[in-house]
Amino acid sequence: MLTFTLILAALLLDRLLGEPRRWHPLVGFGALIDAAERHGYADDRRRGAWLVAGLVIPLVLFSAWLTAPAWGWAVELILLYLAIGWRSLGEHGRGIGAALLQGDLPQARERVAFLVSRDTQNIDETEISKATVESVLENGNDAVFAPIFWFVVAGAPGVVAYRLVNTLDAMWGYRNDRYRHFGWAAARLDDVLNYIPARLTALAYALAAGGIDGTRRAFRCWRHQGTAWKSPNAGPVMAAGAGALGVRLGGAAIYHGRSEGRPDLGEGADAQGVDIDRALDLMRRAMGIWLVVLGIGALVIMM
User: Fold this and answer.
1) Transmembrane helix: is it a keyword of this entry (predicted)?
2) DSSP 3-state assignment of 113?
3) In the chain, N or C terminus with fewer CB closer than 10 Å?
4) Residue 254: beta bridge partners?
């Protein structure tokens, strides 16, 4: 029951406070990653793996030490709150939707660039909308559902390990000439840690579709399209989410000046600006499903 209570409290803190605007630990960790890359980079899998271990293991052990005393629950609450980015994701998504509603494409492009790694300078309204919905669905797993999953499984050390690895993957997990070998360990470890939570997120999206037809469509898209995506975890999440919303995502996108073919996800018309709020609503309903299941689990354990 304490774990469930801490999850509720962390979600409440995130809704009330959002992410810290200064001194966020993950920003500091990002600077540490940059320093490690500057001084330790080599086009070698082993070097990258050793750096990942050297960056993650000491901080995970430190978090375990911090939560050992009787007041460790307070540290667990703070660490989980810092790992969740639900309000921030919503603010970014709604800001892009508002810019699109006002017809301000330059502002929408500028805002969406904070969420995605593709080139955004010349994308149109439909591409902006698709990119934002994709990011909301995928980051719903990475910044909300997966941290909670690992908190349930392994407490504060679990959520710290997950968020650190997820940050490393965001910075080193690219399949380009520089990171294909050096970032291999970060990318594969992130794939492993996301495997179960991503599928639980996809399941929640499907169940939160709002009707039996939407749920069936979400499962169909997940089954037939999810495995075709370049990421083994983002594919099921975005395919199920797109199916639940009844929109089409994916398609070609520009990365680092080159067009990259991507499979279609979902069914129906291409996502539009109004679908950004619908994706955020889907996340809220999916979180409601998670909380009901976690609450029932906590009660069963207490009996």
Assistant:
1) yes
2) coil
3) C
4) 259
